Amino acid sequence: MFTLSVGDVAAASGVASSAVRFYEQHGVITAVRTAGDQRRFDEGAACRIRVAKVAQRVGLTVREIAEIFAGLPDDPQPADWGQVADTLIAEAESRTAALKSYLNDMQSAGRLCEIDL
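Above: the chain sequence. Below: its structure as tokens.
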């Protein structure tokens, strides 16, 4: 189960080893410790990091991503990932709508300091 090293997860997810430790520290992924105090991750860690990177591009914080992932079972199935995707899509659409509203407000030739946030 928990057999992948930090380097393995980093290579599989396309991030630096320090990023793997960062995501673990913030609850996006979980590790167990060996007798030699080395971190070991399960096969899903790289997938979670890749999804987290997409979520960050949408604008979610690492804390928000960890909260979304907290609802996933230990061995997420496609339907579970579908729910995560639905959440990310809804969040992206909401943030896009807010950004469009801000753009419209800025183009209205009003005073920028009077834009409602």
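Helices lie at 6-13, 17-25, 45-58, 62-70, 78-107.
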